[in-house]
Amino acid sequence: MTTVLSAVAWPYANGPRHIGHVAGFGVPSDVFSRYMRMAGHRVLMVSGTDEHGTPILVAADAEGVSARELADRNNRVIVEDLVELGLSYDLFTRTTTVNHYEVVREMFRTVRDNGYMIEQRTHGAISPSTGRTLPDRYIEGTCPLCGAAGARGDQCDVCGNQLDPTDLIDPVSKINGETPEFIETDHYFLDLPALAEALGEWLKDREESGSWRPNVIRFSTNILKDIKPRAMTRDIDWGIPVPGWEDQPTKRLYVWFDAVIGYLSASIEWARRSGDPEAWREWWNNPEALSYYFMGKDNIVFHSQIWPAEILGYNGEGERGGEPGTFGELNLPTEVVSSEFLTMEGKKFASSRGIVIYVRDMLSRYQPDALRYFISAAGPETQDADFTWSEFVRRTNGELVSGWGNLVNRTAAMIAKNFGEIPEPGELQDVDEALRAQVATAFDTVGDLIRTHHQKSAIQEVMRVVAEANRYVSETQPFKLKAPEERARLATILHTLAQAVSDLNVMMSPFLPHSANAVDAVLGGSGDIAPLPRIEEVEDLDGGPGYPIITGDYDNVPAWGPRPVTVGAPIAKPTPIFAKLDTSVVDEELARAEA
């Protein structure tokens, strides 16, 4: 048994999340975590809402509410949406807890005391009309290195280089289009050059392991070529106070310094709530533990450079040495699992321009597993992918309904009609043995693909075996076996089918947990083979305001492997598991998007 941390990107709480977000961080991390639990590993899946930074203030100002009010509201919306989608977090929390504040401040103090936080005077961008700091990502201009338009103040997505807002040619504010004003200000900088050698050695080890996706390791190694100190504080009054600068209330820690520490603070909060406050150390101090970080490609730099650098600085493993703080020597990421972007009808998601499908709206009209299936089968795993309503309808109807749903329904319907219970099989023929062998072999294939983050290939393999099971029905034609002397053969075929459906359902359960429970119930099971998350209202552990968390009980999952059906289990006439979509959905949704 291996100890596995599933560190899931923290959705930003300036608004509800759209399906592009959950395609990057949500569904892939949940499929992986569910499989790893079934494979016998001890999994801790954590995340929460990221609630600091200027974008929250900008959104709050636009609505005439406080930053905390906006964060509270969006935190709850996001929590409800992710539970509805079935994401099996052990703890989904938020960055405004007292626990998180204290963990972040401890990290900062130790990194600073080890010599990797340096004070520098620099130029900060402010909005001339409001006097408020403009975050790097809210400033755009032409990249001075490659000449690409639309480069941000923190990096250019075209050439991958880190930038400062002052580097940009013709910089403008994304908020209101005005030219930012640059003023002198003092900040703490993470001394990345002093950590570059350690970062490079870690990335070299990761590259030689061959486990990282090629696009992620290439990007990560490229950004080491022009490494320089990076500001970790901001001129802002919404965020975590800077240790040592408590007398300067408009100086706060950079949101990206504090957000990535959330993986650690959430683990600590989970342990405290579990009754064993030190339990988190099994995932963070145990050198044999594995950790996987799930996100979209725009967050690679923060997870393959900034967060590892913070850990190395905390551990005292840079060129200046140092000693770990109270958290001990922390584990570096095993793998940064980054997906590419999901677009919508050929356009980049943009809430401000109405190019968006919010998770809540999607789940109010369609089954959560239909969305999970689309993301798993056609999502942006290693290259950008496009969501279109026509493709969503085609895959739902042609694959989910006609393929998997049809196999489940016809199997249960024939058993219900002919026996009313799962029959005792007789002597197996070659065709029966062949199907059983294909299903059994698929467990290893599918499991290895999920474990190595090839989820599209994994679900394709499951669907390939589903097609083989449907072909088995066509070859054996159980619906024609009506004579008394054919009843034993009919029982064998239907038992073989029931077993195939049961085993395929185990393989499907990481991808489609809601329907996996429904299929299990159809086959006479308890209907709880894929535990679902729940919302709990909790008090802050350290006296702050209460908030909702996502948690769940995921210990009693079936082992990854065949799940024998029970002879004599009653089988009733089934109703369809998946809803077939009318083709009019395409025009209706396109019209809704244009309204």
Describe the structure.
Helix 16 runs antiparallel to helix 17. Helix content is about 45%, strand content about 15%. The protein is of the alpha/beta class. It contains 18 helices and 17 strands. The N and C termini lie far apart (about 50 Å). The protein has helices at about 20-40, 55-65, 65-85, 100-115, 190-210, 215-220, 255-260, 260-275, 280-285, 300-315, 360-365, 370-380, 390-420, 430-450, 455-475, 485-510, 515-520, 585-595, and strands at about 5-10, 40-50, 90-95, 115-125, 140, 150, 170-175, 180-190, 230, 235, 250-255, 290-295, 335-340, 340-345, 385, 535-540, 545-550. The longest helix is centred in the C-terminal third of the chain and has 30 residues, at about 390-420. The strands form six sheets. It has a five-stranded parallel sheet with strand order 3-2-1-12-13, sandwiched between helices. The relative contact order is 0.14. It is elongated.
